[in-house]
Design a protein that fits this description.
35% strand; mainly beta; four-stranded antiparallel β-sheet
Length: 117
């Protein structure tokens, strides 16, 4: 009886053990002049960037993108976290997501731009 119970637990419990996605990997912050850009990756539905002025000590958050969640799919498979931050030659912030999207943010222009592939 015990071996049958163990087999049933293994067969029925396995799909739920792997159903959720792993947490996003931390992203290294980057500096553009006196501004430090970081990605907290706390919400997979919004691409939030924290901007901290190292000279003035002020901070703000900017939402670069939003993901609209379909009720027909599981929510966690639709999330798109920030994968990397880098600085372009023009001193713009380049943000790449796990799903391959690229966003360019100019610190002097409040509107983010999505780069086409």
């Amino acid at each position: 009886m015990k071996p049958l119970l163990i087999v049933l637990i293994c067969l029925l419990g396995t799909p739920w053990a792997f159903a959720k996605r792993p947490p996003p990997k931390p992203v290294e912050p980057v500096l553009i002049g006196a501004l430090e850009f970081s990605a907290p990756n706390t919400n997979g539905c919004r691409g939030i960037i924290s901007i901290r002025d190292t000279l003035a000590g002020t901070a703000k958050e900017v939402i670069l993108y939003r993901i609209w969640i379909s009720p027909l799919l599981e929510e966690d498979v639709q999330w798109d976290f920030v994968k990397s931050l880098s600085v372009s030659k023009d001193k713009y912030l380049v943000l790449k997501t796990e799903k391959g999207r690229t966003y360019i943010y100019n610190p002097n222009d409040p509107l983010p731009r999505k780069k086409r592939k």
